[in-house]
Amino acid sequence: MGRDVYETSAAARATFDEADRVLGYKLSEVCFIGPAERLNDTTVAQPAVLATSVALFEAMVESVTHKIGRRVTDGSEPRGVLALPEHLRPSFVAGHSLGEFTALVTAGVLPFSDALRLVAERGMLASTRGARGAMAAIVGLSAQEVERVIAATIEPGRVVVANDNGPKQVTIAGDEAGIRAVTEALEKGGARKIVPLRISAPFHFPDMGRIGPDLRAFMQTLRFREPVVPIVANVSALPHPSASAIQEALVRHLSNRVEWLKSVRYMVERGTSTFVEIGAGQVVNGLVKRIADVKLVNVSDTGSLAGALRTLSDRAHHVMSR
């Protein structure tokens, strides 16, 4: 992932090169050529997803401004949506699960290098001292329906709804035996589809909270700035109230549910009519499509970037002309 934009955008290339320097290994090569088993390891997957998403965002900024590497100031401040022309700046930013860290970068809360170190630390802690278990996506049942099956199948706390992704799609997390028992019950209970997820650690699961104190201590070495645009938080489905509140929310993020359904509805209820997904693939847009009747735009490679900018410019012009 990310290879196309790396080869066509100087800003994206600089982002991946920065990631390689900060991490001390060739993250770019793992993203571009694998092997898949290493990319699926949470210690690598987390910085890889962040780097790819930020590279695509930087390529979009570069394409709009025609100024390679343009930043908000001289580079000492975080990059973010302030680098975009005013008519293209979003009303909100939000990230699904790990995507919340990309949202912190685009909202100017953390510079990319600090966010990269943070997700690398998060992945390392999860891998070495975090919860063990599995995750699975459940299609065809609501979070409430899945919770009823869990409660009727297994002891409390062993399996939970980790992501409330939409009206009829959730992700569950738990110990491996618990996940097997619950998925068997869900198959009999009306689930249309069950997809085991390739993960090396279950996030948004109570036992993952054990690494919270270590993650909190690491975050205290970083400077969190006030968001330049509201960030709708996964754990509350509301904007983070301040920079000082973000660190504690990210600790709770380890063990609390991703409230994606509520987050999308919050933004739509406040007038959001266009959602732009930035990152490899279009999974998040697929979730949004099932929640709200809105315009969906995707930036996942060079080709989609050009189309996305045309769509956004046309819609911005329409809004300003009404």
Question: What key phrases describe this protein's structure?
Answer:
14 helices, Alpha-Beta Plaits, single chain, four-stranded antiparallel sheet, 322 residues, alpha+beta, 2 domains, globular, Malonyl-Coenzyme A Acyl Carrier Protein, domain 2
What does this structure look like?
The radius of gyration is 19 Å and the shape is globular. It contains 14 helices and 6 strands. The protein folds into 2 domains: 172 residues, Malonyl-Coenzyme A Acyl Carrier Protein, domain 2; 67 residues, Malonyl-CoA ACP transacylase, ACP-binding (Alpha-Beta Plaits, 2-Layer Sandwich), CATH 3.30.70. With 322 residues, the protein is α+β, with helices and mostly antiparallel strands. It has a 4-stranded antiparallel sheet with strand order 2-3-1-4. It starts with a helix and ends with a helix.
Low-pLDDT stretches = 67-75
- CATH arch. level architecture of the largest domain: 3-Layer(aba) Sandwich
State the secondary-structure class: alpha+beta
Rg on CA atoms, Å: 19 Å
**CATH level 3 topology of the largest domain:** Malonyl-Coenzyme A Acyl Carrier Protein, domain 2
First-residue to last-residue Cα separation = 39 Å
- The CATH homologous superfamily of the largest domain corresponds to Malonyl-Coenzyme A Acyl Carrier Protein, domain 2
Please give the domain count. 2
Look at the structure and give the CATH class of the largest domain.
Alpha Beta
